[in-house]
Amino acid sequence: MNSNGRGVEVDRQAMDVDIACAGFGPAMGGFLTTLTQAWTQNPADPAFQSRVAPSLPLQVVCYERADDLAAGVSGVVTRAEGIRSTFPALDPTQIPMAAGVTSERVLYLLDPIGASRRSALLRCGDFLLRLGKERWLKDHAFELPWTPAFLRKHGGLVLSIGQFNQWVGQQLMAGGFVQIWPGTVVSGPIFGDTPDREHREVAGLRLTDQGVDKHGAPAEGFMPGMDVRARLTVVGDGPVGAVGQKLDEHFGMPAGHARRDWALGMKMVIELPVDTTLEPGSVWHTFGFPEPEIFGFLYVHPHRLASVGIFIPSWLGDPARTAYRYLQHYIQHPALWRHLNGGTLRSWGAKSLEESGKRGEPFLVGHGFARIGEGSGSTNMLTGSGVDEAWTTGVQLGEAVLEILDAGLPFTQQNLAATYEAHRRTSRIERGLRQAEHARDGFHSGFVRGLIGMALAGLTGGRLSLKAHIPPAPRRILPFGIYGKSGLRLRDAAALIVADGRPLHDALLTARGWPDIPFDGRLLVTHQDALLLGGKVQAVPGYADHVVFLDRRRCISCDDKTCIAMCSGQALSLGEDGAPNFEREKCVHCGACLWNCSQSPDGERGNIEFHAGSGGLHSGEN
Amino acid sequence: MATTFHIAVCAGIVPDPLQTLEPTTTPGGPAIKNEMLLPAVLDPWAASALYEAADLASRVPGSKLWLVSLGPKARLQQVMMTVAQKVAFELVPIDSPQGGFADAAATAEAIASTIEAIPNLDRAKLLLFGGWESASRGAGVTLQFVGERLRIADQFFGVDQIIVHDDGSFEVLERVEGGKHQVSVCAGAPAVLGWATGNLAEPRNNPQIGMANMRTVMPALQRAKAAALDANGLRYVAVSLPRQQRETRVVQDMTPDQIAAELVAWIGKDR
Amino acid sequence: MESILVLTHADESGSALTKASLEAVTAGRDLAARLNAELRIGIVAAKPQLLSKGLLCAAPKGLQCAAPVLAVAGEAFAQARFASDAAACTELCRAAQPTLVLAPHSSRFARVMAAVAHRVGGAIDTHIAALGGAEGFETTRWFYRQRIEAVIRRDKRPWFLLLEPGTNPAFAADPHAPAAPSDQIAIAVELPELRTQVTGFRAPKVDEQTIRPDAQLLFVAGAGWTKKQPDGQVHTGEAAELILKFLRASGASLGSSKSLVDQGGEGNSVLPFLTHLNQVGQTGATPRHAKGLSTCCHGEEPHVVGWRFIGERRAVNLDPNCGWTRGKADVVYIADAFAVMQRVNALLGSSDT
Q1: What is the pLDDT of residues A185-201, one digit of tens each?
Q2: In angstroms, rounded to a whole number, what is the distance separating the alpha carbons of residues C113 and C104?
Q3: Percent of chain C having pLDDT more than 70?
Q4: Do C253 and C131 sit in the same domain of this protein?
């Protein structure tokens, strides 16, 4: 057994490929499509000859952790400039659930219940708005007279990322140049032999052990994870991906860079009532409810489907922050409920978003590896846009790889830096990221300051913004004490968990004055029903637990237990010894536990490790 | 062992078991709403048959294994990316509409004629494997029809085990009523075996098997012939989701003693 | 006009028709009366003459005569085997020339009837839950593991219908009825070479058979039985004892939720007598029982679809928001199942003695 108790020292099978890729999302879609399009035009080009399998074309394999390529989690609106540039003749009707953007609204939602935690300043603003009554407000919402340019997605697409991934994946696999293997978990990178960490080298990917118990020890049908050795390893496994995390741990981050801002996006795909007036392509951005810090969205797909969701940011200091119950209150806000009442839950899911943007950018290249997509810090936090940016970074790497192959050069750090990194630095993606770099800092000093900072950055192209010190995510979880009586009520609520098994966040929100959810079995369903009816969450046996508590004593003494409150799938519950219990079968792999832990052993990261795991969502409509 | 088998496993694809299914009417008859949006899997009982077939082929050297799968090409391709990592086979795809509402006899005809056309398949050595029922139509007749079309005189259904003897004969365990297995001994191939769950765990994902399979899977999919399925006079009068909403009496104020008394009276009623 | 042939077979003893066969006889009588159709009964058995008594007066309802009985006989039919059974049923059909063939959906007939339909140029549908149709004849069956119900018609004849056991009452002959048993018409069968021999039966190794398809009551245990109780402890041993005691006293069949069965694979302490065969729901069984009692199970939809054919439903659960309270059960008791089942067992124990 390794020193960390995970993985087993055994003889592993090994396999050589030319390019090994971890994670299939929009970035990898862009990368593999770029390669495939070039190969299709000239398959006989010697540049495409494999070095590991003579007489065959390049051996390009991509491993995806989820059980299906469509099991991605996101309903998105994107400007789709990069995607359209890859597919100039793109016809949205060919992609299930895709629609061109037809209208956009920005709504400030007031709190019709009176339970949200609003500052005096905000209450004052709400009061003034209410004075205007119907003139300014409809359904307890104030619509901005225009959508700020930086938020606009005009000409873009409303997409289901699950369906988009599937559409891209089908074309790639039918092309026959690349192989994409879902349900295959990559446990981490294989580092090069050099002991010098400055010389960043990756030699491939190690797949996870199968046929092990929950602690990773060999059990029935044990099969050690294979080593897939590659000339180039492409890492696009997202912000909580195991390969990306291990690279950061091993090589560190560039000076001044850290991943400290996060958000959990949780959303439902709702089949709208038959008489809905919402048009496909309609896009709503909301803020102000259920808590001021929680932003929300509603995107309308074709065929009466809508993606509706919220973002819970790491700078929401509440130690008992939670998502599912808030999402249920969100959809019941009168401005949304008017359209959603009578609808049916079709799908549900959650995902962590890396919100540090440029400041969370890791080393993009090294010897034999390159990083693309959200985990490479490509998300633009000002425009709230990540999919097209991720796609474009994949395309940029694809073009760089073609250049390197054409020149017959090896995939060294120098060659990758001179091509991929250099192209990326001069692209619109980088310009956007620089503009957005400090756009959201203000939120660390308060909600209103955050809005002002964002508006400043947006209106001045990033030249002006309200900068702030960004603390590590564990330090953003504020102790209960500062909430006074509400903190005490929380303790009472927590006691209820032991008494009747009720989850913490539910008890807490009720204690704070949020009304009980009037479950209707169709749209307002229990969290457990959302897992099974919406997310279709499943996990096959034979894999280790991928959520690991480093020091259980810290967990036992932790008052906050934010990991339990923020667990999207109720996979974490309070264990007998006072430490959280993890149930792999309920995990949706959102990765929230990674950044929702206040018990930091080193001041930077939490006490929870989030490894590569099998299973999760089986919904294709996300 | 001198015997070798040519095993053809018939396995369709079905929506992943936890998906929400809703029927809808199309010009071609009833269908599952948004079926192409739903993740698909290899039909679970047929998947047992595939794993058992691979196990058998590995125990009887010289045997061959074909996977005959019928469904929309794009869907088959997607499912194969998972299945192809588990066991080695040669894919024989049939491109056809998905769904359990198609007529079983028409489906069987398409499968049987495809198997007849498999080059180098020795019908005298044929073991025709499949699930004893699908998770879509759930009728348990398609495989039997195929066996009959191929004039196979021995058929077994609800199979959980096969043990091959040195002389090529084999013992089969079939599920019968009363939680028991019927034990039969068959003189040898050809035979039809419709599998229940069998005894094997799902094989682990093996990337090398996957890559080896892919060399034949993708070309086979590209060559897949389209099969139109005749309705054979089958007409659907109504297709609906059952509505079983009940008027629930929620009892919150009874003691365990009172509840127990009420339950015992209820259990005893009509006995 | 339709003419109906009901195919039946003997049980393992060879001296009686199976219950499912007699259910098919009931369905045949009802249908013949409704369609004003001819009714014949076919028997597959080694010694069919032993079985005639069971079919006394099995004419269509309202008629006093006996239905004509066609039978194949011989030692070959003592075994449930594809080659001999398919040949027998084919010859019975050829002799009777029916337009509709009703038969029980037993393992024996499910093994052969599609082949028989193919041989006589007919069509077949299985797992038939109902025979109906105000205008014309139609049948009801389920698709996608009992999640979608469909009513179908076919033009093709003969139309073979395998009837789901439990959907009709078993026909009971009246030994005092005046009608004499009909003479059996012996049907000769030319058997093909028989390459298969049935050598016996094997029961799986389990300490106690907890699945009882004929039980009145389905008792479902959910994952709550193995969760910690108000004293902060897990009481798996006590749970196992309570459940087994209840099963013995009530004669109920044991079902389980997926989450409880799945715990077995992860090395947790779990009820020792549960296997995946007990699992009820979307990825498990859909049993038929008159009543169902759920305990410590949340009642989520994927589980409850397995209750499709459960008549009266009651649940005991601590959570007033559990799925059962939302139209999925008739009565839900918000209570601790440990306490309730202890008292239920005490009451059942005292009523037994």
Answers
A1: 999 999 998 777 778 99
A2: 10
A3: 89
A4: no
